[in-house]
Amino acid sequence: MPGFLIFPLLAIDTGIVNIAVYSLASNVYTKSEKILLSLGNKIDQRKKGKGRLINRQILSCSALRVEFVSNFFDRDTALVIQNFCIDEIVSVSLIGAKGVIE
Q1: How many Å apart are CA 82 and CA 17, to the nearest integer?
Q2: DSSP-based three-state secondary structure for 5
Q3: How far apart are CA 78 and CA 16, in angstroms?
Q4: Which residues form the domain of 24?
């Protein structure tokens, strides 16, 4: 019966990867964007001598991204991947159920 233990383990691993890893990777991009915006707002409030130089330096920075091949994880990527996985599971289940019914 060890073969029956593989399916629950795969389900748990898939859930962990989808929820934890992809969500954390998307949080890196989202949080770094928010930090850059807040730094830019703080500099805009001061606008004194070195304000321009620091503002240019902040504008030259880009948000941190976790990249995979040529794509990166933004805020919606985790949801898109979870939606794709659920769609595939449902379609395979329906194909399997169709074969059983006929």
Answers
A1: 10
A2: helix
A3: 12
A4: 2-101
Instruction: Tell me the sheet residues that pair with 72.
Output: 67
CA distances from 2 to 7, 8, 12, 15 (A): 10, 11, 16, 21
The label of the residue with tokens 């599971």 reads: 89
Are 16 and 64 contacting, i.e. CB atoms less than 8 angstroms apart?
no
CA distance 88 to 96: 12
Please compute the mean of the pLDDT values over residues 75-79 and round it to a whole number.
77
pTM exceeds cut of 0.85:
no
What pLDDT digit, counting tens, does each position of 29-47 carry?
888 889 888 887 777 666 6
Q: What is the number of domains present in the chain?
A: 1
